[in-house]
């Protein structure tokens, strides 16, 4: 358990350890087994987009991805991060091309490169669109066997969260967290704070990035 202060309020973040989730494994039993026994009135939960994606079966194994010339070219210009693979892996970029299309990615590479020279970053992902910034995977530090998979974003993230809330009476959010940033991909209707606050509460990525097996975090307002 760790504490985080956001906008004058303190929040406890209780990381929930689970077993290793398998591809297309039903998600409800995870809530019933690991989360429900720990819940208190007023709690809300944050769920890693990776575990949602795995549960939905939205993954692609590296054996079926052959990087083309465009993927190899684009990765030469992406920002390299010391603590995160980002888009420096050609296979991951190839998955992005499969989602967005070669023409759009090529166009994004040209325009994004120009605006980057002018001091503006991130236009490649905005122009390519198709939510390619949410694609994850091929991280050598990830737990096996998921270091060999690309993970496409969760389908119907808001609906997934609402279904969790409707069945278990706990507001839910899906977050995409790493060592660089955290984004909120979906949220149920009764979440008592907005997405910006959810992001700040989890900005240090308490779920971890490696083999912690804590893909769900219970967030609780604290009186401390």
Can you tell me about this structure?
This protein has 224 residues and is α+β, with helices and mostly antiparallel strands. It has 2 domains: 2-58 and 153-222, CofE-like (60s Ribosomal Protein L30, Chain: A); 59-151, no CATH class. The chain contains 8 helices and 9 strands. It has helices at residues 28-35, 49-56, 69-74, 90-100, 102-117, 123-128, 157-168, 195-201; strands at 2-6, 9-16, 44-48, 59-61, 136-137, 149-151, 172-177, 182-187, 216-222. The strands form 2 sheets. The chain has a 6-stranded mixed sheet with strand order 1-2-9-3-7-8. α4 crosses α5 (102-117). The chain is globular. The model has no long low-confidence stretch (mean pLDDT 89).
Short description:
The protein has helices at residues 28-35, 49-56, 69-74, 90-100, 102-117, 123-128, 157-168, 195-201; strands spanning 2-6, 9-16, 44-48, 59-61, 136-137, 149-151, 172-177, 182-187, 216-222. It is an alpha+beta fold. The chain folds into two domains: 2-58 and 153-222, CofE-like (60s Ribosomal Protein L30, Chain: A, 2-Layer Sandwich); 59-151, no CATH class.
């Amino acid at each position: 358990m760790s504490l985080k202060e956001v906008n004058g309020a303190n929040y406890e973040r209780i990381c929930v350890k689970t077993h290793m989730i398998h591809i297309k494994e039903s998600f409800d039993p995870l809530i019933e087994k690991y989360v429900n026994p720990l819940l208190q009135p007023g709690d809300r939960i944050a769920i890693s987009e990776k575990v949602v994606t795995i549960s939905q079966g939205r993954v692609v194994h590296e054996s079926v991805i052959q990087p083309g010339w465009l993927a190899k070219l684009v990765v030469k210009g992406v920002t390299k991060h010391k603590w995160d693979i980002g888009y420096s892996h050609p296979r991951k970029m190839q998955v992005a091309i499969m989602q967005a299309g070669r023409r759009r990615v090529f166009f994004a590479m040209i325009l994004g490169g120009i605006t980057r020279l002018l001091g503006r970053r991130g236009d490649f992902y905005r122009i390519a669109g198709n939510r390619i910034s949410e694609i994850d995977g091929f991280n050598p530090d990830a737990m096996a066997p998921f270091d060999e998979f690309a993970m496409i974003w969760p389908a119907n993230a808001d609906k997934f969260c609402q279904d969790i809330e409707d069945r278990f009476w706990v507001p839910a959010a899906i977050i995409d967290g790493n060592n660089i940033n955290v984004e909120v991909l979906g949220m149920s209707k009764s979440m008592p704070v907005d997405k910006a606050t959810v992001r700040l509460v989890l900005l240090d990525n308490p779920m971890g990035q490696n083999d912690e097996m804590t893909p769900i975090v219970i967030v609780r307002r604290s009186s401390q």
